């Protein structure tokens, strides 16, 4: 039974952005009717718990020509849609989790779409479409193997159990059996397991004389192919955006380091200029002493020779002795 808008608003009474959350939940449940909104207590890693709404159910995932129902659970925080949901794969009792690039051992889902979540471009419908594409490439769950019990062994009491070289005892069953392929996805079970890649057996069968029939490709409509291509394109755009953000972050960090280095060099030059300026001011503040000869100097100033009296070279002196007598 589908949940009405009034019931959703009552369930999300404590959510900060109730109307936005209700609108997205109704859009998702109208397309994926197996997803049901449920209020339950979610326990965080620090041990605290909170009443949150979750979308629990299965989503159809195409894999090798068939469509399988993968069980998931999407927890919406009370700050949704401005915070990403917490996503898990919820295997049934006949399934086991296959850890990989996007799913850990606890079933928690990791995607670049969740890491780069930003409202309004990011929403529940886009998240589910990306989950379908990712799980179609790498299934998150596999079916468990159910090996039949081996026949009991009894001691032989009669004649040898062989007739014309044919053994009458049933063969022993090996301990390790290959896991069976999953059944038809349209059976009664709501969550169908993903198929298992079968390894070749040790004993090869003789080649058949008849040619194998040609492989028949499943009929896929053009609209389905276009929708898958759009989903793949959206996923690759988000991965490219994540790589671009990482590169921009590295470039900004390098630029910040260069600016910090330039700032240190500038401050060093400023302090050096201040030091030179202070030293120059100290030199200017020192008084200069007058240029006077030293008091205890033993050297005498040089004697300036007296100039002889000026005589006219054209007249003869009457004083032959040069005593200046007229």
Automatic annotation (TrEMBL):
GO biological process: endosome to lysosome transport; protein transport; regulation of DNA-templated transcription
Domain UEV as annotated: residue spans: 2-145
Superkingdom, taxonomy of origin: Eukaryota
Pfam families on file: UEV
SUPFAM superfamilies for the chain: UBC-like (SSF54495)
InterPro entries, A to Z: ESCRT-I_UEV_domain, UBQ-conjugating_enzyme/RWD, UEV_N
This protein's name: Tsg101-prov protein
Organism from which the protein derives: Xenopus laevis (African clawed frog)
Gene symbol of the encoding locus: tsg101.L
């Amino acid at each position: 039974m589908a949940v009405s808008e009034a019931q959703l608003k009552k369930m999300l009474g404590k959510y900060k952005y109730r109307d936005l959350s209700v609108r997205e939940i109704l859009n998702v449940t109208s397309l994926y009717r197996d997803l049901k909104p449920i209020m339950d207590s979610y326990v965080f890693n620090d041990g605290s718990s909170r009443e949150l709404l979750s979308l629990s159910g299965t989503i159809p995932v195409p894999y090798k020509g068939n469509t399988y129902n993968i069980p998931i659970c999407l927890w919406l925080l009370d700050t949704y849609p401005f915070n990403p949901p917490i996503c898990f794969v919820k295997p049934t009792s006949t399934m086991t989790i296959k850890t990989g690039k996007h799913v850990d051992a606890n079933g928690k889902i990791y995607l670049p779409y969740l890491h780069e979540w930003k409202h309004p471009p990011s929403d529940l419908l886009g998240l589910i479409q990306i989950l379908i594409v990712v799980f179609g490439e790498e299934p998150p769950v596999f079916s468990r193997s159910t090996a039949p019990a081996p026949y009991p062994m009894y001691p032989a009491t009669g004649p040898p159990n062989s007739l014309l070289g044919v053994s009458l005892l049933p063969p022993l069953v090996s301990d390790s059996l290959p896991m069976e392929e999953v059944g038809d996805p349209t059976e009664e079970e709501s969550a169908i397991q993903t198929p298992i890649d079968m390894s070749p057996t040790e004993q090869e069968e003789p080649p058949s004389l008849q040619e194998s029939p040609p492989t028949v490709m499943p009929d896929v409509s053009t609209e389905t192919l276009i929708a898958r291509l759009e989903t793949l394109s959206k996923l690759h755009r988000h991965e490219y955006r994540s790589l671009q953000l990482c590169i921009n972050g590295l470039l900004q960090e390098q630029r910040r380091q260069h600016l910090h280095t330039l700032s240190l060099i500038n401050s060093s030059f400023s302090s050096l200029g201040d030091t030179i300026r202070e030293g120059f001011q100290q030199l200017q503040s020192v008084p200069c002493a007058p240029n006077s000869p030293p008091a205890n100097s033993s050297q005498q100033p040089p004697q300036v020779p007296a100039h002889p009296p000026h005589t006219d070279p054209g007249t003869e002196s009457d004083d032959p002795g040069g005593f200046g007598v007229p």
